[in-house]
Each structure stands twice: as C-alpha cells, then as structure tokens.
Write a structure and sequence with these properties.
CATH class of the largest domain: Alpha Beta
Strand order of the largest sheet: 21-22-1-23
Number of strands: 23
Distance between the termini: 7 Å
CATH topology of the largest domain: UDP-n-acetylglucosamine1-carboxyvinyl-transferase, Chain
Strand content: 15-25%
Largest sheet: 4 strands, mixed
Radius of gyration: 21 Å
Oligomer: single chain
Bound molecules: uridine-diphosphate-N-acetylglucosamine
Helix content: 25-40%
Length: 407
C-alpha cells in the first residue's frame, strides 16, 4: 500500500505554481466525447483522476495523446460501449458519461460512479435533467431517440447535474434553459470549452440558455486548480512559514481569502501571485456554500489549522455531512465534536501519527497535520491524495518539507 512518510516540524517557505484544475479538466475530457473532432486542452494536470478519465474515453474509441500538459483528443470515430466498472467506480467524474453518452449515442447504461464517498452522493438531479429533456429512464438505462429542448429547474446548485444538463441540452432540438445552475469556475470552464467547440450557450441570471448545436473539436487552456492553490496557502500558517502561490489571484477564491483574513492570517496580492504569511489571531469560522461561497473542497484542510491555533467552527452547507476525515486527524491529536452539518474543532497538541488518508481532501488535511507535528508520521492509502494533487511530493519538498512518497 502506498504511503507518505513525513518528518514534521519544518517551516515551509517559497513559491509554488498550482497545476491545472482537476475539476475543470475532468468534465471537459468527458464532454469531448459529445463532440466530433479534435480537441486541444492545455494545462491538464497529470493526476490519477485524469489518467482514469482518459482510459475511460479511450474505451469509447477516442484517441488521446499527451505532450507535456497538453492533451489532444480525437473523437471522430467513437462508438458506444459499456465502460469498465472498475474504472467508472474509481472516479466521481465518470458520472459525466451520462451527459456525453446520451448526447452523442442516445443511450447510457447506468453504472457505479466512484470518487470520494465522504457521504451519500445521489444522481437524482442528473436523471431529472435527462428526463426533462425527454430521455427515458429505467433502473439501468437512460435512452433518448430524440431529445427536445426544455426548461430545467434545479432546486439547488449541483456542479455535476449542471454539467450533464448542459451537455445533453446541446443535442436537444430547439432551445433549453437551466435555472438554479451551479456557477463554479469549472462549470464556466466547461462552457468556454463547449463554446469553442461550436456550442450556442448564453449565460442568463441563475443559469444558462442553450440551443442545439453541432459540436466539433474545441480548445481551452485550463485554469490553475483553486483547491490545490488554497491548500498550499493554508500550509503557510500551518507550518509557520510564508508561501507564494503563483497565478492564484484570478481564481475566484474571494470568500476563502475573506475567511482566512478574518481569522488574522496575512495575505498580499502582487499581480497574479498571492502570498500567505502569519498565524491566525482568533478562532476560525468556516461556512461552506456553493460558489461564490467558501469551497467545501477546502473545508477539511482548515481543520488542522483550527486545532493548531485557536480552534474553530465549521458549518458544512454543501454536503449533508463531510466530517468522517476528522477520525483520521484524531490520530494526530485533533480534538473535535460533530453535530450533523456542524463541527467544532478544539485547540489541540498535535503529535506524529500513523494513519490512513480517508479521501482526497481529508488525506491532504492529514498531511498538513503531519507536516506540523514534530517527528515521523506515516499516512497510508496515499495514492488517493495523488488523485487530485499533481507532483505533491516534489512541490512540498521544494517548499522545504521532509516528505517521502512510496508506492
Ligand atoms: C463536485 C466536485 C466535488 C465538490 C462538489 C461541490 C467534481 C468531480 N467534484 O462534485 O469535489 O465537492 O462539486 O462543490 O467536480 N446533489 C443531489 N442530487 C444530485 C446531485 C447532487 O442532491 O443528483 C446534492 C449533493 O448531495 C450535494 C450538492 O447537491 O449536497 C452538491 O453536489 P454537486 O455539486 O453535484 O457535487 P459533485 O458534482 O458530485
């Protein structure tokens, strides 16, 4: 089993450049299946989830070439197939096959979608979007001989359901509107890619207007990963260091910046670069919300900081509960109490530990604890962290961390 060995207690200082966004790259890779042509995607991170996504679309006949961080995807000769369950059940983004297969092939056989199962992750809104456009849905199959434009009203924003609705609506006759859509930067990135591929999509208040479009290959340079950027920013106060994250000023992290400056952490922005320094001066209050709120994917990484300094409160408003990772942090001495969607994290003495990465972001939080606890820690199941953090070991080392990854 893979593990990270961390010799904690070192101050992390220096500059870091986040890789391309995972959550923008994945929907675009799957959406390329709904296009007929050659797409060029720049700044695509070489991480576990992206490798799996590529294998899945290759099983549909897509030809994919990687040159550095650029992916070239040829979807001119794709065909429908039942994708390998072992692959679809290992990443959440495989649920984007619903949209691209229904749009391109008129059919999709439902399979198990994986990813971080920190709580129940339903797909009822994805199916609702397909049904609104006229698809027929049984317990194992979605089929659509002809989709028809419709108004789709979501009662809460869902990144995945919005993405699938957008892709399917492009193949539906006439005009569709999505209301209550998610507006995360990665949803906007998908829209930009689809527009470059010939899509007729217009942003409207609370959603999108879409007209049926023939899609050819598209191009996009993927933005840096906002969650990776935020994780490195939190590592500065966690290790009493000073870290500059390059190209991070444009990443729509305003509510994250507001929350950490409210706690007393210093931030300075010079051009596109963000430098984080200093320590919290008071307890943290983190309230997650759909974009532009505090990103839920940066919630687990704040708990280590709370425990090292003045404690804090987390209100989780995106997922029903997202606190199972706290068990793993408990091994380092993190003390906490959870009450459904709220957690209280108390000031605690952190010491080295041997533990498991429970999921991607919870695993990053465990590494954060290990980096500050003086002595040797081991975090097993470490490959789950590399699903979302590109070159994690070498980037941490460049900042001065004493860390070793073993497969
Ligand atoms: C995406 C991200 C994930 C992030 C999440 C919220 C990817 C690959 N994953 O996940 O990292 O934590 O956005 O920013 O981009 N919901 C339903 N029914 C549905 C779909 C969602 O009730 O059919 C609910 C979920 O239970 C959750 C909320 O909607 O409470 C938001 O989920 P959603 O935005 O869909 O998350 P994902 O797209 O799965």
């Amino acid at each position: 089993m893979s593990y990270f060995k961390v010799f904690g207690g070192k101050r992390l200082c220096g500059e870091i450049e986040p890789s391309g966004s995972k959550n923008a790259s994945l929907p675009i890779i799957f959406a390329s299946l709904a296009t007929c042509g050659i797409s060029e995607l720049k700044n695509v991170p070489d991480i576990g989830d992206v490798r799996v996504a590529i294998k899945i679309i290759e099983s549909f006949g897509a030809k994919v070439k990687r040159a550095g961080n650029t992916l070239c995807i040829d979807t001119r000769n794709v065909f429908y197939t039942m994708p390998d369950k072992a692959l679809t059940s290992s990443i959440r983004a495989s649920s984007y096959l619903i949209g691209s297969c229904v749009a391109r092939f008129g059919v999709f056989h439902l399979s198990e979608f994986g990813g971080c199962n920190f709580c129940n992750r339903p797909i009822d809104m994805h199916l609702f979007a397909a049904a609104s456009l006229g698809a027929e849905i049984s317990s194992c199959e979605i089929s659509a001989i002809r989709l028809a434009g419709a108004k789709i009203y979501f009662d809460k924003p869902s990144v995945g359901a919005t993405i699938n609705a957008l892709i399917m609506a492009l193949s539906a006759c006439g005009e569709s509107e999505i209301f209550g859509a998610a507006k995360e930067p990665h949803v906007k990135a998908l829209v930009d890619y689809l527009i470059s591929a010939g899509a007729d999509i217009e942003e409207i208040p609370f959603g999108y207007k879409i007209r049926k479009s023939e899609l050819h290959g598209g191009t996009l340079e993927v933005l840096p990963d906002m969650i990776e950027a935020g994780t490195y920013m939190l590592l500065a106060p966690m290790t009493e260091g000073r870290i500059t994250v390059r190209n991070a000023a444009k990443l729509e992290l305003d509510s994250f910046f507001e929350t950490i400056t409210d706690a007393g952490i210093g931030i300075s922005i010079h051009g596109e670069d963000v430098t984080v320094y200093g320590e919290p001066q008071r307890p943290f209050l983190v309230t997650t919300a759909p974009h532009p709120g505090y990103p839920t994917d940066l919630q687990p990484q704040t708990a280590p900081l709370m425990s090292k300094y003045f404690g804090g409160i987390i209100n989780e408003n995106v997922w029903q509960s997202r606190f199972s990772y706290l068990d793993s942090l408990g091994a380092f001495g993190v003390r906490y109490k959870t009450m459904s969607s709220r957690a209280e994290v108390y000031h605690s003495k952190l010491y080295p530990a041997e533990t498991f990465a429970p999921d991607l972001r919870g695993g990053a939080a465990a590494v954060m604890c290990a980096l500050t606890a003086r002595g040797e820690s081991t975090i097993k199941n470490a490959e789950i962290i590399l699903r979302g953090y590109s070159d994690f070991e070498s980037k941490l080392r460049r900042l001065g961390a004493n860390v070793l990854y073993k497969e």
